[in-house]
Design brief:
mainly alpha; Tetracycline Repressor, domain 2; 10 helices
């Protein structure tokens, strides 16, 4: 007779539960609050079960960062598909998601990855590879120097927002102005 309390094995689902819990913890706690035990608890697995899927804290964090970059990439792609103007489409999507204030969606996950990127060379390299790939895909629409400056400005504004030194009343004005400048100049 089957034991009704024994969980059926579904390693892919368990692995995804662990990744989801890790991404959530990165978004909520950052790297400093990231622990294997709290991820295991949130995923409903033992620490040993977590280590079965991810042999180290670094491996789990790397997988979580890759997953977040993949989710960000999907969100950016969806944003671009809805954009009726080709010129600057990637830059507009990048600014939108970089400067998003939501604390539960892709914006908070993106912030977690950005913080990881600032402190870890492996995460930084993954981000650089993603950005280089995106820029290569959008060379026809986003290879303009003005658009590059706007992406860098978005990164700088993100840092001031993250550290809390931005003046909130001006932040939205800056975001709106940056987005406005991503469109081609009218003749």
């Amino acid at each position: 007779m089957d034991n009704p309390y024994k969980r059926k094995k579904d390693p892919e689902r368990v692995k995804q539960l662990i990744l989801d819990a890790a991404m959530h913890q990165l978004a909520e706690q950052g790297l400093t609050g990231f622990s294997l035990q709290s991820v295991a608890d949130a995923a409903g697995v033992t620490k040993g079960g977590l280590l079965h899927h991810f042999p180290s804290k670094q491996a789990l964090m790397q997988s979580a960062v890759v997953e977040v970059i993949s989710l960000l990439d999907q969100a950016i792609e969806e944003h671009i598909e809805k954009d009726p103007v080709d010129y600057g489409c990637f830059t507009r999507a990048y600014i939108h998601f970089t400067l998003q204030k939501d604390m539960h969606g892709i914006g908070s996950l993106s912030t977690a990855v950005s913080m990881a990127m600032l402190t870890d060379q492996v995460f930084n390299q993954r981000w650089v590879e993603w950005m280089d790939g995106r820029l290569a895909r959008h060379v026809q629409t986003d290879a303009n120097m003005d658009l590059m400056l706007l992406r860098y400005a978005a990164d700088g504004l993100w840092l001031t927002m993250y550290t809390g030194i931005d003046e909130h009343s001006n932040t939205q004005l800056l975001v709106d102005e940056m987005l406005c400048r991503t469109y081609p100049a009218s003749s």
